[in-house]
Amino acid sequence: MSASSAHPGVGAGHHRTTIETTTLAAGAVFALAGILGFIPGITTNYSAMTFAGPDSGAMLLGIFQVSILHNIVHLLFGAAGLVMGRNATQSKYFLIGGGALYLVIWLYGLLIDQASSANFIPVNTADNWLHVALGAVMVALGIFLGRGTAGTPSTR
Predict the structure, then answer these.
(1) Which end of the chain is more exposed for a tag (fewer CB within 10 A), N or C?
(2) Distance (Å, rounded) from C-alpha 31 to C-alpha 131?
(3) Does 154 have pLDDT greater than 60?
């Protein structure tokens, strides 16, 4: 068994599909957001960052409320995209599943009182707008780019 057939996405015989490239790019962006959330200056009010909860005053790019937990979630989600972006079927699952998860987080952010302890991630209005946009785009890309990926020999 060659390296490329044993590990899809690895080896000279594998050419990345558009959905794989899209997932890898999304994973890189999420990971970057997680890293930037820990950099003072890029994250304003850095000294007001808490582990979790609505009291975290840190703002990524001065817009999006973040906490240590929020940044860790971005890093983990980014890592998932980088790992799953190695084959088309997993890329489809990442985009559709991750997009659906972001839509759930958007709904959660709309339904909770942002000043309450229920806002443990934390999220603000800018986060909510970003989450609905990310969720919709990711699901749409997963469906559109993922057509024909399930069960094809090149995506095993």
Answers:
(1) N
(2) 16
(3) no
